[in-house]
Amino acid sequence: MLKVANLRKEFDTVVAVDGVSLQVQRGELFGLLGPNGAGKTTTIRTVLNIIRPDSGAITFDGKPFSPEMWNIIGYLPEERGLYKKSKIISVILYFASLKGLSAHEATPLAERWLERFGLKDAGHRKVEELSKGNQQKIQLIAALIHKPQLLILDEPFSGLDPVNQILLKDILMEVRQQNTAVIFSTHQMEQVEKMCDNICLINKGKIVLGGALRDVKKKYGTNSVHLEFEGDGSFLKQLPMVKRADVYQNYAELELVDIGKASDLLGKLDTKLNLKKFEVVEPSLNSIFVSVVGIPKEPEVKAEDLLLAPKKISINKDPKVRKQLLSMIGGSLLAVVLLAFEIGKPEPSFTLPAVVIAAVAFSFYRYLMVKSRVEKEQRESDGGKN
Questions:
Q1: CA distances from 183 to 44, 79, 170, 198, 274 (A)
Q2: At what angle do helices 132-144 and 162-177 cross, to 10 degrees?
Q3: Cα 307 to Cα 285: distance, rounded to the nearest angstrom
Q4: pLDDT of residue 37
């Protein structure tokens, strides 16, 4: 069993993980949820001691985490971590060796996993030749090949098409049956609803919701109505008995102020929509997520902020750039005048105009260099303010 108690990690003035506690049993699929920037990935990395926590206790099967435990852990990071110029089979065998498997042990396992993921004949191709989804499969194989006792997956469904999402779901269910503790972080709520026993919802570094999925849904009651219809459902959000509405083209999920008003709602819909389905149900995990976390608001822009905001100036108005530009223009005019003067002579000499033209060319080069440097400084300045 994985046990995490009062985990905390702070970066300068930002508390990324704030008192997170959770337990994951062997043979359990545990969903770690949260909006972007909530602290999910930081929590995972502190649990694995990739990032050292400021405080808190982490144990697996009652033992503190130690380097020796790495061989029983499988980890899929959110970012790609593959050697793109290497052959696929070489990459898999390398990661297997880090988990204590010899090439003799790992090769048949790698071939079996490649076949399972539909990449049977791809082992000698380079990683960079694969699509994003197929590269994700290679990372999954690297996390699974040594039969870990604790498997932690950060956005495992990323890049996978629906067919391969089903395949991964089946694999995770098999891994669960092998008494492995599985944690996965994802934004795909439907996958969590279908697979997970327990969930933990993190927002701004803190746990705001957690427990058995069935208990979480029960807590949020049955004030939800699912609709399938034909017609324009945009008016649903304005109905007085509707507390919240997720409206799509031909489907809507409504949260009512009082489920006793469902019949009143039905009466209002009959005249405006061609109803295909009207069902009172438990709220979906997606609606619970939105209810707890809320929809992010756009930051308010104050008038004084706009007045104080630095105004970008044209690059050519910068004093250094302007000086080089004027020098180049002046030299060009001089070259034209000298050429015209020499052409009008009975025996023209183009030595002086050639010297001036060479100077203009150098001046043009200097102009481009200065302009490039000023543009870079302006970009860096803008980046620092953002």
A1: 9, 17, 15, 10, 43
A2: 10
A3: 43
A4: 83
Q: What does the block give as tokens for 215?
A: 């208990």
Angle, CA 186 vertex, CA 284 and CA 113 arms, to 5°: 120
Question: Is 197 in contact with 30 (CB distance < 8 Å)?
Answer: yes
* pLDDT confidence band for 299 (50 / 70 / 90): very low
Q: 2-218 maps to which CATH number?
A: 3.40.50.300
Q: Could you give the count of Cα atoms lying within 13 Å of 365 in the half-sphere of its Cβ?
A: 6
pLDDT digits (tens, 9 = 90+) for 359-377: 888 888 888 888 887 777 6
Q: Report the Cα–Cα distance between both ends of the chain, in Å, rounded.
A: 43
Structure tokens at 79: 């970012």
Structural tokens at position 279: 């069902």
- DSSP codes joined into one string, 156-211: TTTT--HHHHHHHHHHHHHHHHTT-EEEEE-S-HHHHHHH-SEEEEEETTEEEEEE
Domain ranges of the chain: 2-218, 222-281, 311-385
The residue count for the chain? 386
Q: How far apart are CA 75 and CA 143, in angstroms?
A: 5
pTM score of the predicted model: 0.66
**In the 8-state DSSP scheme, what is residue 297?**
P
Query: Contact 43/17 with Cβ under 8 angstroms?
Result: yes
Q: Which residues contact 64 (CB under 8 A, 6 or more apart)?
A: 57, 58
CB 29 within 8 A of CB 176: yes
Which amino acid makes up residue 108? Answer: P
Phi, psi at 227, each rounded to 5°? -120, 140
Q: Each residue of 35-65: pLDDT tens digit? A: 888 888 999 998 888 888 999 999 998 888 8
Q: Which one-letter DSSP state was computed for residue 252? A: E
Cα 121 off chain centre by: 30
- Number of neighbours of residue 267 by Cβ within 10 angstroms: 9
User: What six digits make up the tokens of 221?
Assistant: 């009651």
Helices (H), 10-102: 40-47, 88-98
